[in-house]
Design a protein that fits this description.
about 0% strand, mainly alpha, binds protoporphyrin IX containing FE
Length: about 220
């Protein structure tokens, strides 16, 4: 059953790609050249933004899986976490490729200057680089090779990648910061949930202070 649901979910995750590419390449009734106008006056920018948006959305969906499976008591949701994370990476690659190819025409000098000088690019690039080891080690073989604890520790990089993604967005917008703030609020809730869970686990493990042991035992 899960296998079929996974196929459907996989298809759904490809819909944004389909819509963005069909708008980018698709003909438009008022466009004499036959392509590009479906995404507005600046189709390359719109494509780049579309992929960027979906990278961040998939990162947030990946981070929601653990809280949702616990709160809704649906343990099988975990089976979709890897797919969501890989889709975040996939849209990140599409976003980065659009930037490298259609925005900068692989002009290495300009790209390096951008990464070094424009801080929103530096932080976006950092977020993307952080996702690479996660995508590479996402297989069961890598979990075995690294061991569960080390694998989990490595995969906490997704928190830093998502924070970098939100800062990247916040720094690139010029006036209306509502959208990056909305993403930031969702991320804050998802990270806040983890801090609370971690804090509660720590409190449970902490040994009882001597004074209270005295109270309990009466000695
Ligand atoms: C974790 C990785 C990344 C995430 C989550 C991300 C996300 C985003 C988002 C949400 C936007 C704005 C979309 C909108 O306006 O609707 C955006 C724009 C953009 N991103 Fe990224 N991005 C990432 C990595 C990168 C990288 C590696 C580069 C290039 C080195 C890059 C370059 C850009 C550029 C050039 C824009 C458009 C800026 C403008 O129009 O002024 N991003 N990104």
């Amino acid at each position: 059953m899960i296998r079929y649901i996974k196929i459907v979910v996989f298809g759904i995750c490809l819909i944004p790609l389909g819509i963005l590419l069909s708008k980018f390449f698709g003909p438009h009734p008022f466009d004499m050249s036959g392509w590009g106008l479906g995404l507005g006056a600046n189709p390359v920018e719109a494509l780049e933004h579309g992929f960027g948006d979906w990278t961040l959305r998939f990162l947030l969906v990946t981070l929601s899986i653990t809280p949702l499976r616990k709160l809704l008591q649906v343990p099988s949701l975990i089976k979709f976490r890897r797919m969501m994370g890989l889709f975040a990476f996939f849209y990140g690659c599409a976003h980065f490729t659009t930037y490298l190819w259609l925005d900068k025409f692989f002009n290495l000098h300009e790209i390096l200057l951008d990464v070094a000088k424009r801080k929103y690019i530096t932080v976006g690039f950092t977020g993307f680089v952080l996702l690479i080891p996660l995508a590479l080690t996402s297989t069961a073989g890598w979990i075995r090779r690294l061991g569960g604890k080390r694998w989990l520790a490595l995969h906490r990089l997704i928190y830093a990648a998502a924070i970098a993604g939100v800062i990247h967005y916040l720094w690139l917008v010029k006036a209306d910061i509502r959208k990056p703030l909305e993403y930031g609020a969702v991320l804050a809730v998802l990270l806040g949930y983890r801090v609370v869970v971690w804090w509660m686990a720590l409190a449970k493990r902490r040994p009882m202070p001597v004074a209270s042991t005295e109270v309990v035992t009466g000695r």
